[in-house]
User: Which sequence fits this backbone?
């Protein structure tokens, strides 16, 4: 016995409805733990507002403690070392005599000597906003993080991300090299905010320090 067209129309409508319900159910499973997207967005806005003027590690820690930031929320900022198991810092942040130019000038980051090809990792979740080559820095990458923070990686032998890519904390983005004006293989690493250069050392240990204090 043949079915009426209305039957098939109802059957198709039912299947479509079930499909949409299933999609909605899956989407709900991926909402934040609170289950409310509005709460999640409001909290992100609150954190961003509090971090807007922050430049010091101590102030960041104070806000992180007061807001009880989770590891996931902290990971939106440049809070880990860009190299695994660094043995030493060959040149710190601040005024120094440039090893090539032999003049006193500000060193805007830290230098971490490593073998050529060693992995370089993103220090926080973010988006690649610059990638290229210049005579001083050689091959470089810049990542924008939450709170208008940016991390900068230079003298790279190889880059494996592109402008516009979203990257996650501890994701490999490049390899150590000696491109640009250098005296040997190392990573030059900076933490920036606006027009300011921040001492990366405190930021590199920040996630560990906050986790340890918890």
Assistant:
């Amino acid at each position: 016995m043949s079915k009426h067209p209305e039957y098939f129309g109802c059957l198709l409508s039912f299947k479509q409805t079930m499909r949409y319900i299933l999609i909605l159910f899956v989407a709900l499973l991926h909402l934040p733990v609170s289950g409310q997207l509005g709460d999640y967005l409001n909290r992100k806005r609150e954190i961003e507002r509090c971090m807007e003027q922050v430049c010091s590690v101590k102030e960041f820690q104070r806000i992180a403690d007061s807001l009880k930031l989770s590891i996931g929320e902290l990971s939106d900022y440049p809070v880990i070392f860009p190299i695994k198991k660094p043995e030493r810092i060959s040149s710190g942040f601040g005024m120094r005599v440039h090893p090539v130019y032999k003049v006193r000038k500000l060193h805007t980051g830290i230098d971490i000597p490593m073998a050529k090809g060693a992995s370089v990792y993103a220090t926080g979740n973010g988006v690649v906003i610059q990638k290229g080559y210049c005579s001083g820095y050689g091959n470089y990458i810049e990542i924008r993080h939450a709170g208008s923070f940016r991390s900068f990686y230079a003298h790279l032998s190889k880059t494996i991300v592109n402008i516009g890519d979203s990257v996650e904390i501890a994701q490999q983005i490049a390899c150590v090299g000696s491109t640009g004006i250098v005296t040997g293989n190392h990573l030059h690493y900076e933490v920036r905010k606006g027009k300011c250069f921040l001492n990366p050392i405190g930021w590199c240990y920040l996630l560990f320090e906050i986790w340890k204090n918890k």
Remarks:
- The longest strand covers residues 149-159.
- Residues 5-29 form the longest helix (25 residues).
- Helices lie at 5-29, 37-51, 57-67, 71-74, 200-204, 206-213.
